[in-house]
Design a protein that fits this description.
This protein is mainly alpha-helical. Helix content is 67%, strand content 2%. It starts with a helix and ends with a helix. The structure holds Phenylacetyl coenzyme A (FAQ).
Protein backbone atom coordinates (compact mmCIF):
# COMPACT_ATOMS: atom_id res chain seq x y z
CA UNK A 1 0.00 0.00 0.00
CA UNK A 2 1.42 3.42 -0.84
CA UNK A 3 1.89 6.12 1.80
CA UNK A 4 -1.08 8.20 0.77
CA UNK A 5 -3.46 5.21 0.81
CA UNK A 6 -2.15 4.27 4.24
CA UNK A 7 -2.81 7.81 5.50
CA UNK A 8 -6.35 7.80 4.03
CA UNK A 9 -7.07 4.42 5.56
CA UNK A 10 -5.84 5.54 8.99
CA UNK A 11 -8.22 8.51 8.84
CA UNK A 12 -11.08 6.34 7.55
CA UNK A 13 -10.59 3.90 10.44
CA UNK A 14 -10.68 6.77 12.94
CA UNK A 15 -7.13 6.01 14.02
CA UNK A 16 -4.54 8.64 14.87
CA UNK A 17 -1.84 10.17 12.72
CA UNK A 18 1.40 10.27 14.74
CA UNK A 19 4.45 12.54 14.24
CA UNK A 20 6.56 10.01 12.33
CA UNK A 21 3.76 8.92 10.03
CA UNK A 22 3.66 10.13 6.45
CA UNK A 23 1.07 12.88 5.98
CA UNK A 24 0.15 15.12 3.04
CA UNK A 25 1.84 18.54 3.11
CA UNK A 26 -1.58 20.19 3.28
CA UNK A 27 -2.49 18.19 6.39
CA UNK A 28 0.78 19.18 8.08
CA UNK A 29 0.29 22.85 7.12
CA UNK A 30 -3.29 22.89 8.41
CA UNK A 31 -2.29 21.27 11.68
CA UNK A 32 0.60 23.69 12.23
CA UNK A 33 -1.72 26.62 11.45
CA UNK A 34 -4.48 25.51 13.82
CA UNK A 35 -2.21 24.34 16.64
CA UNK A 36 -0.04 27.48 16.45
CA UNK A 37 -3.09 29.78 16.44
CA UNK A 38 -4.47 27.86 19.37
CA UNK A 39 -1.16 28.12 21.28
CA UNK A 40 -0.90 31.85 20.56
CA UNK A 41 -4.49 32.30 21.80
CA UNK A 42 -3.67 30.68 25.12
CA UNK A 43 -0.59 32.87 25.59
CA UNK A 44 -2.26 36.14 24.51
CA UNK A 45 -5.35 35.01 26.46
CA UNK A 46 -3.38 35.40 29.71
CA UNK A 47 -3.43 39.18 29.32
CA UNK A 48 -7.10 40.23 29.73
CA UNK A 49 -7.53 38.35 33.00
CA UNK A 50 -3.91 38.84 34.07
CA UNK A 51 -4.75 42.54 34.33
CA UNK A 52 -6.88 41.73 37.39
CA UNK A 53 -4.41 39.63 39.39
CA UNK A 54 -3.11 42.61 41.37
CA UNK A 55 -6.66 43.92 41.86
CA UNK A 56 -8.53 40.74 42.83
CA UNK A 57 -10.97 41.51 45.66
CA UNK A 58 -9.79 38.77 48.08
CA UNK A 59 -6.93 36.36 48.65
CA UNK A 60 -9.17 33.47 47.55
CA UNK A 61 -10.12 35.16 44.27
CA UNK A 62 -6.49 36.07 43.65
CA UNK A 63 -5.29 32.48 44.21
CA UNK A 64 -7.97 31.16 41.83
CA UNK A 65 -7.16 33.73 39.15
CA UNK A 66 -3.41 33.14 39.42
CA UNK A 67 -3.96 29.39 39.01
CA UNK A 68 -6.18 29.95 35.97
CA UNK A 69 -3.75 32.27 34.21
CA UNK A 70 -0.88 29.85 34.94
CA UNK A 71 -2.96 27.02 33.43
CA UNK A 72 -3.29 29.08 30.25
CA UNK A 73 0.49 29.43 30.04
CA UNK A 74 0.70 25.64 30.45
CA UNK A 75 -1.82 25.09 27.65
CA UNK A 76 0.22 27.35 25.37
CA UNK A 77 3.33 25.31 26.13
CA UNK A 78 1.71 21.91 25.45
CA UNK A 79 0.38 23.27 22.19
CA UNK A 80 3.74 24.71 21.06
CA UNK A 81 5.20 21.27 21.82
CA UNK A 82 2.48 19.64 19.71
CA UNK A 83 3.35 22.05 16.86
CA UNK A 84 7.03 21.08 17.21
CA UNK A 85 6.15 17.42 16.59
CA UNK A 86 5.02 18.58 13.13
CA UNK A 87 8.42 20.12 12.44
CA UNK A 88 7.49 23.72 13.33
CA UNK A 89 10.15 25.79 15.05
CA UNK A 90 9.03 27.38 18.31
CA UNK A 91 11.11 30.57 17.89
CA UNK A 92 9.74 30.98 14.40
CA UNK A 93 6.15 30.64 15.67
CA UNK A 94 6.80 33.29 18.34
CA UNK A 95 8.27 35.63 15.71
CA UNK A 96 5.25 35.10 13.48
CA UNK A 97 2.92 35.98 16.36
CA UNK A 98 4.71 39.14 17.43
CA UNK A 99 5.08 40.33 13.87
CA UNK A 100 1.33 39.83 13.34
CA UNK A 101 1.88 37.15 10.66
CA UNK A 102 -0.04 34.44 12.54
CA UNK A 103 -3.46 34.78 14.11
CA UNK A 104 -4.77 34.30 17.63
CA UNK A 105 -8.39 34.22 18.75
CA UNK A 106 -10.38 37.42 18.20
CA UNK A 107 -11.85 37.12 21.70
CA UNK A 108 -8.70 38.35 23.44
CA UNK A 109 -8.83 41.78 21.83
CA UNK A 110 -11.43 43.21 24.22
CA UNK A 111 -10.74 45.02 27.50
CA UNK A 112 -11.61 43.68 30.96
CA UNK A 113 -13.28 46.70 32.55
CA UNK A 114 -14.46 45.28 35.90
CA UNK A 115 -13.93 42.15 37.99
CA UNK A 116 -17.20 40.80 36.59
CA UNK A 117 -15.31 40.43 33.29
CA UNK A 118 -13.16 37.77 34.96
CA UNK A 119 -16.31 35.81 35.80
CA UNK A 120 -17.86 36.29 32.38
CA UNK A 121 -14.65 35.20 30.62
CA UNK A 122 -14.75 32.00 32.71
CA UNK A 123 -18.42 31.41 32.01
CA UNK A 124 -18.67 32.37 28.33
CA UNK A 125 -15.14 32.35 26.90
CA UNK A 126 -14.02 29.16 28.63
CA UNK A 127 -17.51 27.76 28.01
CA UNK A 128 -17.11 28.39 24.27
CA UNK A 129 -13.57 27.02 24.38
CA UNK A 130 -14.82 23.77 25.96
CA UNK A 131 -17.63 23.46 23.46
CA UNK A 132 -15.11 23.81 20.61
CA UNK A 133 -12.35 21.73 22.18
CA UNK A 134 -14.11 18.65 23.58
CA UNK A 135 -14.63 17.31 20.02
CA UNK A 136 -10.97 18.13 19.30
CA UNK A 137 -10.03 15.40 21.84
CA UNK A 138 -11.01 13.09 18.92
CA UNK A 139 -9.02 15.09 16.37
CA UNK A 140 -7.01 12.91 13.99
CA UNK A 141 -3.55 14.23 14.94
CA UNK A 142 -2.43 12.28 18.04
CA UNK A 143 -0.33 14.85 19.96
CA UNK A 144 -3.01 17.55 19.50
CA UNK A 145 -5.88 15.29 20.52
CA UNK A 146 -4.01 14.11 23.63
CA UNK A 147 -3.07 17.68 24.65
CA UNK A 148 -6.73 18.59 24.30
CA UNK A 149 -7.80 16.03 26.93
CA UNK A 150 -5.83 17.69 29.69
CA UNK A 151 -6.62 21.18 28.45
CA UNK A 152 -10.37 20.47 28.51
CA UNK A 153 -10.19 19.20 32.09
CA UNK A 154 -8.54 22.45 33.16
CA UNK A 155 -10.94 24.56 31.08
CA UNK A 156 -13.84 22.93 32.94
CA UNK A 157 -12.41 24.18 36.22
CA UNK A 158 -12.02 27.61 34.62
CA UNK A 159 -15.61 27.64 33.47
CA UNK A 160 -16.90 26.61 36.90
CA UNK A 161 -14.84 29.22 38.75
CA UNK A 162 -16.27 31.90 36.43
CA UNK A 163 -19.84 30.79 36.95
CA UNK A 164 -19.37 30.53 40.72
CA UNK A 165 -17.88 34.03 40.81
CA UNK A 166 -20.88 35.38 38.87
CA UNK A 167 -23.35 33.54 41.14
CA UNK A 168 -21.67 35.20 44.12
CA UNK A 169 -21.83 38.65 42.52
CA UNK A 170 -25.47 38.13 41.52
CA UNK A 171 -26.38 37.49 45.15
CA UNK A 172 -24.53 40.66 46.19
CA UNK A 173 -25.49 44.32 45.75
CA UNK A 174 -27.40 45.91 42.87
CA UNK A 175 -24.13 47.51 41.72
CA UNK A 176 -22.55 44.03 41.48
CA UNK A 177 -25.52 42.65 39.56
CA UNK A 178 -25.25 45.58 37.15
CA UNK A 179 -21.57 44.81 36.61
CA UNK A 180 -22.38 41.19 35.71
CA UNK A 181 -25.09 42.27 33.27
CA UNK A 182 -22.79 44.86 31.68
CA UNK A 183 -19.96 42.32 31.26
CA UNK A 184 -22.41 39.78 29.79
CA UNK A 185 -23.61 42.42 27.29
CA UNK A 186 -20.04 43.12 26.18
CA UNK A 187 -18.77 39.51 25.92
CA UNK A 188 -21.80 37.67 24.47
CA UNK A 189 -21.39 38.53 20.78
CA UNK A 190 -17.57 38.25 20.74
CA UNK A 191 -17.97 34.78 22.36
CA UNK A 192 -20.17 33.68 19.44
CA UNK A 193 -17.46 34.87 17.06
CA UNK A 194 -14.89 32.57 18.68
CA UNK A 195 -16.32 29.67 16.65
CA UNK A 196 -15.13 31.27 13.43
CA UNK A 197 -16.93 32.56 10.33
CA UNK A 198 -20.24 31.05 9.17
CA UNK A 199 -19.81 27.69 7.42
CA UNK A 200 -20.52 29.22 4.02
CA UNK A 201 -17.49 31.53 4.47
CA UNK A 202 -15.18 29.14 6.29
CA UNK A 203 -12.24 28.41 4.03
CA UNK A 204 -10.83 25.49 6.00
CA UNK A 205 -13.80 23.59 7.44
CA UNK A 206 -14.59 21.20 4.55
CA UNK A 207 -11.02 19.92 4.25
CA UNK A 208 -10.48 19.84 8.03
CA UNK A 209 -13.67 17.79 8.44
CA UNK A 210 -12.57 15.39 5.68
CA UNK A 211 -9.25 14.91 7.52
CA UNK A 212 -11.15 14.60 10.83
CA UNK A 213 -9.11 17.42 12.32
CA UNK A 214 -12.42 19.15 13.03
CA UNK A 215 -15.41 16.99 13.99
CA UNK A 216 -18.12 19.67 13.71
CA UNK A 217 -18.55 22.81 11.66
CA UNK A 218 -18.29 26.32 13.10
CA UNK A 219 -22.06 26.88 12.91
CA UNK A 220 -22.87 23.53 14.58
CA UNK A 221 -20.66 24.35 17.55
CA UNK A 222 -21.94 27.92 17.78
CA UNK A 223 -25.52 26.60 17.93
CA UNK A 224 -24.55 24.09 20.62
CA UNK A 225 -23.01 26.92 22.66
CA UNK A 226 -26.11 29.14 22.36
CA UNK A 227 -28.38 26.25 23.42
CA UNK A 228 -26.11 25.53 26.39
CA UNK A 229 -25.80 29.16 27.52
CA UNK A 230 -29.49 30.14 27.55
CA UNK A 231 -30.48 28.07 30.62
CA UNK A 232 -27.24 29.08 32.36
CA UNK A 233 -28.09 32.77 31.85
CA UNK A 234 -31.60 32.18 33.21
CA UNK A 235 -30.27 30.47 36.33
CA UNK A 236 -27.81 33.29 36.83
CA UNK A 237 -30.49 35.95 36.37
CA UNK A 238 -28.89 37.83 33.48
CA UNK A 239 -30.32 38.70 30.08
CA UNK A 240 -28.41 37.75 26.95
CA UNK A 241 -28.20 40.88 24.75
CA UNK A 242 -30.08 39.51 21.74
CA UNK A 243 -33.77 40.42 21.19
CA UNK A 244 -34.01 37.70 18.51
CA UNK A 245 -32.94 34.90 20.83
CA UNK A 246 -35.84 32.46 21.18
CA UNK A 247 -36.58 28.75 21.31
CA UNK A 248 -37.56 27.24 17.98
CA UNK A 249 -39.56 24.08 18.76
CA UNK A 250 -39.47 22.96 15.14
CA UNK A 251 -35.68 23.01 14.95
CA UNK A 252 -35.21 21.97 18.58
CA UNK A 253 -32.68 24.81 18.95
CA UNK A 254 -32.61 28.49 19.83
CA UNK A 255 -32.78 30.97 16.99
CA UNK A 256 -30.47 33.93 17.46
CA UNK A 257 -29.76 37.31 15.85
CA UNK A 258 -27.32 38.33 13.13
CA UNK A 259 -23.64 38.34 14.10
CA UNK A 260 -21.70 41.41 12.99
CA UNK A 261 -19.18 39.66 10.72
CA UNK A 262 -17.75 42.95 9.48
CA UNK A 263 -16.70 43.73 13.04
CA UNK A 264 -15.20 40.22 13.35
CA UNK A 265 -13.11 40.78 10.19
CA UNK A 266 -11.85 44.09 11.57
CA UNK A 267 -10.79 42.46 14.84
CA UNK A 268 -9.08 39.53 13.08
CA UNK A 269 -7.22 41.90 10.79
CA UNK A 270 -5.71 43.80 13.72
CA UNK A 271 -8.20 46.61 14.31
CA UNK A 272 -10.02 45.44 17.44
CA UNK A 273 -10.08 47.53 20.62
CA UNK A 274 -6.99 45.89 22.17
CA UNK A 275 -5.03 44.22 19.33
CA UNK A 276 -2.21 46.70 19.54
CA UNK A 277 -1.79 46.52 23.30
CA UNK A 278 -1.88 42.68 23.25
CA UNK A 279 0.88 42.39 20.64
CA UNK A 280 2.98 45.19 22.11
CA UNK A 281 2.94 43.50 25.51
CA UNK A 282 3.76 40.11 24.04
CA UNK A 283 6.66 41.61 22.07
CA UNK A 284 7.93 43.40 25.19
CA UNK A 285 7.74 40.21 27.27
CA UNK A 286 9.71 38.38 24.57
CA UNK A 287 12.40 41.09 24.50
CA UNK A 288 12.56 41.17 28.31
CA UNK A 289 13.15 37.41 28.27
CA UNK A 290 16.19 37.64 25.95
CA UNK A 291 18.66 37.40 28.86
CA UNK A 292 17.05 34.12 30.00
CA UNK A 293 17.42 32.62 26.51
CA UNK A 294 21.03 33.87 26.34
CA UNK A 295 21.83 32.41 29.75
CA UNK A 296 20.23 29.06 28.85
CA UNK A 297 22.18 28.92 25.56
CA UNK A 298 25.47 29.81 27.33
CA UNK A 299 24.84 27.13 29.96
CA UNK A 300 24.02 24.50 27.31
CA UNK A 301 27.21 25.42 25.38
CA UNK A 302 29.29 25.11 28.57
CA UNK A 303 27.79 21.69 29.33
CA UNK A 304 28.61 20.57 25.80
CA UNK A 305 32.22 21.83 26.03
CA UNK A 306 32.70 19.98 29.32
CA UNK A 307 31.22 16.78 27.87
CA UNK A 308 33.68 16.93 24.94
CA UNK A 309 36.72 17.75 27.15
N1 LIG B 1 -10.31 34.56 15.80
O1 LIG B 1 -11.82 28.49 7.83
P1 LIG B 1 -12.04 28.89 9.25
C1 LIG B 1 -8.60 29.64 24.37
C2 LIG B 1 -9.64 32.50 11.17
S1 LIG B 1 -9.85 29.36 23.26
C3 LIG B 1 -9.31 34.75 14.92
O2 LIG B 1 -13.36 28.56 9.81
P2 LIG B 1 -10.72 26.95 10.95
C4 LIG B 1 -8.83 29.23 25.81
C5 LIG B 1 -9.10 31.13 10.86
O3 LIG B 1 -7.93 30.89 11.59
C6 LIG B 1 -9.44 30.20 21.74
N2 LIG B 1 -9.24 34.12 13.73
O4 LIG B 1 -10.83 28.32 10.12
C7 LIG B 1 -8.80 30.38 26.74
C8 LIG B 1 -8.89 31.22 9.37
O5 LIG B 1 -7.73 31.98 9.09
P3 LIG B 1 -6.45 31.38 8.28
C9 LIG B 1 -8.55 29.42 20.81
C10 LIG B 1 -10.23 33.24 13.46
O6 LIG B 1 -9.33 26.86 11.45
C11 LIG B 1 -9.96 30.77 27.37
C12 LIG B 1 -10.05 32.09 8.93
O7 LIG B 1 -10.46 32.82 10.07
N3 LIG B 1 -9.15 28.19 20.43
O8 LIG B 1 -7.62 30.15 23.98
C13 LIG B 1 -11.28 32.99 14.34
O9 LIG B 1 -11.24 25.81 10.17
C14 LIG B 1 -9.97 31.86 28.26
C15 LIG B 1 -11.20 31.27 8.37
O10 LIG B 1 -11.79 30.45 9.39
C16 LIG B 1 -8.74 27.52 19.32
O11 LIG B 1 -7.85 27.97 18.62
C17 LIG B 1 -11.30 33.68 15.55
N4 LIG B 1 -12.28 33.51 16.46
O12 LIG B 1 -11.72 27.17 12.18
C18 LIG B 1 -7.60 31.04 27.05
C19 LIG B 1 -9.42 26.20 19.05
N5 LIG B 1 -12.10 32.08 13.77
O13 LIG B 1 -5.70 30.55 9.28
C20 LIG B 1 -7.60 32.14 27.94
C21 LIG B 1 -8.82 25.44 17.90
C22 LIG B 1 -11.57 31.79 12.56
O14 LIG B 1 -7.00 30.53 7.17
C23 LIG B 1 -8.79 32.54 28.56
N6 LIG B 1 -9.14 26.02 16.64
N7 LIG B 1 -10.47 32.50 12.38
O15 LIG B 1 -5.67 32.57 7.86
C24 LIG B 1 -10.28 25.75 15.93
O16 LIG B 1 -11.12 24.98 16.36
C25 LIG B 1 -10.43 26.38 14.58
O17 LIG B 1 -9.17 26.84 14.16
C26 LIG B 1 -11.47 27.56 14.55
C27 LIG B 1 -11.47 28.17 13.14
C28 LIG B 1 -12.86 27.00 14.85
C29 LIG B 1 -11.11 28.65 15.56
Amino acid sequence: MNLEDHFDETIARDQRIEPRDWMPDGYRRTMVRQVAQHAHSEIIGMQPEGDWITRAPSLRRKAILLAKVQDEAGHGLYLYSAAETLGADRDDLTERLIEGRQKYSSIFNYPTLTFADVGVIGWLVDGAAICNQVPLCRSSYGPYARAMIRICKEESFHQRQGYELLMTMMSGTQAQRNMVQDATNRWWWPSLMMFGPPDAQSTNTAQSMAWKIKRHTNDELRQRFVDMSVPQAEKLGVTLPDPDLKWNAERGHHDFGQIDWEHFKEVVSGNGPCNEIRLTRRRQAHEDGQWVRDAAAAYAAKQQREAVA
